[in-house]
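Reproducibility note. Readers wishing to regenerate the assembly model reported in the main text can use the exact inputs given here. Chain order matters: entities are listed in the order in which they were concatenated for prediction.
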Amino acid sequence: MEHHDYQLSMTRRQLFGRSALGLGTAAMAQMLPSELQSAQGRADLNGGIHHKATAKRVIYLFMSGGPSHIDTWDYKPKMRDMFGQDLPEHIRDGQRVTGMTAGQKTHPVCPSKYEFTKHPNNEDGLWASELLSKTGKVAKELCVVNSTFTEAINHDPAITYIQTGSQIPGRPSLGAWLSYGLGTMNEDLPGYIVMHAKTSFPEQSLFNRLWGPGFLPAEHQGVLLRSEGDPVLYLSNPKGTSRKDRRAQLDTLAALNRSQHEQSLDPQTLARIKQHEMAFRMQASVPELMDLTTESDKTFELYGEEARKAGTFAACCLNARRLAERGVRNIQIFHRGWDAHGSLPREHESQCRDIDQACYALITDLKQRGMLDETLVVWGGEFGRTSYCQGGLTKENYGRDHHPRCFTTWMAGGGVKPGITYGRSDDYGYNIANPDGTPMRPKPEMEKWTPGTMHIHDRNATILHLLGIDHRRLTYRYQGRDFRLTDIDGHVIKDIIS
Amino acid sequence: MRSQTLAAQRCLARGTFAFLALTLGSPQQSEAKEVDFAREVLPILSNKCFVCHGPDAKKEDDLRLDSYQGATEDRDGLRAIDPDNPEDSELILRIHDADDPMPPKDADKQLTSDEREILSRWAKQGGKYAKHWSFVTPVRKNPSAVPEDTKTEHPIDRFVKAKLIEKLGEKADLATMSDRATLARRAALTLTGLPPDPAVLASFLSDETTTAYPRYLETLMESPRYGEHQARYWLDAVRYGDTHGLHLDNKRGIYPYRDWVVRAFNKNLPLDEFIIWQLAGDLLPEATLEQKVATGFVRMNPSTAEGGAIPAEFQCKNNFDRTETIGTVLLGMTMSCARCHTHKYDPITQTEYYQLLAFFNSTSESPMDGNKYEYGPVMKAPADQVAWNEWEHLTSQNEALLKELAALKAIPIADTEKPQWKELSRREQLNRVADPKGPFKESALHPKATELKTLFAESEKRFTSTLVAQELGEPRPTQVLVRGEYNQPTGDPVEPGIPSVMGSLPADAPLNRLGLAQWLVSPENPLVARVLVNRIWQRVYGDAIVRSPEDFGLQGKQPTHPELLDWLALELQESEWNLRHILRLMLTSQTFMQQSNQRADLPEDPENLWYARGPSYRLDAEVIRDMSLWSSGLLDDHMGGEGVKPYQPAGLWKALMHPGSNTKNYVADKGSKAYRRSLYVYWKRTSPHPMMTLFDAPDRESSCVRRSRTNTSLQSLGLLNETQRVEMARKLAERLVTEATDDDSRMDLLFTLVASRPPRDAERTACDHLLEQMLHRYRSSEDDALALLSTGEIARNPDLEPAEVAAWTQISITVLASDIALLLN
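Running the prediction on these inputs yields the following structure tokens for the assembly.
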């Protein structure tokens, strides 16, 4: 469909939607694109807006801080022979490194201390470290990408980049774009939910901008589902106010607003009555959502007892499934603590304990419920970690600096090819490599895409594609430019799509 | 034209906004009608053609349609525009060619038939080019003649009426005047961000003389609340925050800048000086404390000290941010495209971008903030408005003393020392006079000087540090960066300069921030006055004349009232940049004063582009909170000082922040600080107060000159449940119960406070009904009443009946959450 038609049909839809609110259709006909606030997924496109979506929703597991691909998914046995030796110059090849290791005299090769096991997938198997052995059990569902890359080398720019398409704050987040593009399927819950999982290493900061609306209308910002206090901000009635009291208040509020509307004829006033009613419904639907007592013991066997504790990563994953069941399209969990500069084993062991069973459980659970086909699950951080050691290197303990040039992420469900790996790194896990293992230097450019690589813009383009969105056509005009999530780049990686 | 290049598709701006012509006037004109290039043709070229044939066309032989020269160039015997035989222009052929059309069949943006018609007509008329409207300096055209009474009518109304008739036909006219109470509330909210005080309102309503309204406006503009409210818009634009913004998002000491902005508005500092001081106050001769504090503007970019970050990279990022903010705030131009390549639409080259950036590249601060509160250079400045006032008083006393000293002709310094005396700052001169061993120790002014010196020292104890701009001794060289990459500089260093399409710097202008600032506010600058006056219009009428206030470029919206915009821009300049003069003009127009109800008789203009009704919009987050604080009597009117922290749900910051951050714990203020105006609420950039962001306040990490106005269910939850709102409502309830004796007069008072009028019958009936229910309910459960009345820190008044106050609390919450309170109308 031409973009033209799309815009027109959206306008018409909105027009009918609004005209029901009391303003004449003739007036609405004038309300052309400047009024166009957002689109809405189309039923005939399975919820997509540009083409048929294979994923109706996305659950994004964000590992903030940058997990070490070398200790999790990218098996590099040859590094063991190189223990402690300086990383060859041709491997590093002018890569800029952060100020934290730029001054190091040597960059000693630091193999993973963990055992790797090969799990059967739909190809010749998936290597996973013992830290993620449970997730490894769903290898047949995972599409593991060992060739993700970015340019940013520090957390703040890198996480801002992967979440908003720009290293400098100010752009809308991935989730806000999705909300803007797809709207919501559930009238009683927000369309875009963000959770912060607990961690033993609450390092690195998160920022509102990571789920913020940027220059999109603020209604597209992610809504925090919290484990402390009200799950949704200001959800509970004040003390001494019952649900019946609130009902009475809302009836009066509606009467006041209707009286106001009789004078002003402002359709926004009627729209606000609807929002007050939705809030009232949310006061019932959110506690129902958060009430895990309706879950069977089997669920907790699957997710682990941790899932009973509010705010754990496991509980967040279980909530994510419950949200998905209730029609929420856009769910993101942030898990901090992956920034292992010094004591990687201690920190990553704890981090992996937090997530391993939960990831396995989420995929299994969705699969069992027949939801995985239409739910895209995404896992990854803002960058990977270096194959050389930061600080002192022993067999038992080491640290790794930030590494943007090559790292591992995975996706599952939602139309992604199950049980495959995509892309590879060189023998050091340092560079993305050609099939023969020689390093390559992909550069993100509009017209060129290097097969076997996945720049973060490519990744975002692919996520949007699976949800029925052409990343080049989901645009918003701000400051005279039609902005998009993928800036001026991005390629849909067709190789990983079923 | 046949050689469309792939390269030119790089900076994609896809998506279709082909409807501009529809909303901005019908293009269905006769052949003979002269095409207005700037308003009709250029937007089409920019939107549909420049993606390949624009200022950034890559190869030398690419056709360029952004200039007459390019369009008329002979290309193998063909010319896009053929001035000799206009009818044969290749452009006309190609846009109608079914087999080989332009734009190509696969282009994202296709021409509409109306656009083809305009382009053809233009080419046939010779294909003349003109500058984009916003690059031409404004011309004062008198308001179009409207029959009858042109002399007595308000100039704004004459422009608006003429356009109304042009767009909506002869039957169209402004709406009738609002009733005076509505008008009083509208004006007070517009100028001060608060409703009128009941006493002020009553006195205005009882004064029926013709000068009552202008005098009422003056009273409002004299209120200190005025400067606070006007400052807020500016703080959004300059992205004022109390934290550094990136990574740890630590505290930053810069609130004296915010307080200075409030002062500047309250003193009606001319806007040209307002701008010069902020950009370059430190470079002015004998720069004053205020002028230096104002340069906090230059330091407002978010900053980082993330471990391992590369300073050179952030030196660039900080400068990108400043350059692009100047673009948004003062030039109304998107500069960011030109960071990586020559602008695709607007005539700004990549080199020019770096020339503009060069003005900011020679400030002396480190590119990394060190996570420090005092991210130098800093200076000491008054810590709140009381301290500012005191300092100002002392400064004027010092001036008087030195004047007296000069008049005494008693400067007992040898002639040779006189130049040195002049080099001393005024404060140093005072110290000389006060010096017990100095040459003035016998002077009659010596004791007074000594006292003054002590007072200054006392006063400066209440100073705090604030970030300021300072120039390096030697300018830092600036180079163009390939694709905006900090580590890919190319070519020779560029001189500071301005985009040539906007004019040129005077030959004698200093090539530093001061030169830039002076050019910005010079009459030759085509943009700044328009951009400013457009935003003033936006905050008075709810929407701007150019409805893309951040973009006056080729892709921006066209002004709905171009002559009016120019007239106002010149009025601003010629009134010596007098903001109050412009506000007076606007607020006394019928365009402002008319009724705001939607017009059933004029349904053609739901967006109110042509102003057949007065302003009506949902108030901003700050105003919504302030109105409740004020009506409850809780508002603490203390001005200035460190950002304040009202209640906030626990753990919000901690869930986000690095353990090393000094903003990971939110500790709510106790006592009066929690009840200051929202302007003073602590602005943590990575997580501003949720009651602000729920109602569309920006994060202040980047410039915002237009807030969205959304309508969500989460707002409803905040309005009805947030602790401070409940607390305000119960104090308002106590006020109603105490100040009025019966329910009817209590209801009257409530509505007078919030809506500046008594309740309408339907409203009173609805509220009475709720009151009855709630009284019954709380009288049968005093525990619930007491629970409700224990929300928030402030104790309830024990002399009042809990059930009655609780019931009125629920009424107050309800009314304060209704559109009666939430809207300006």
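We highlight two features of this model. The longest strand of chain A covers residues 142-149. Chain A touches chain B through 108 residues (CB under 8 Å).
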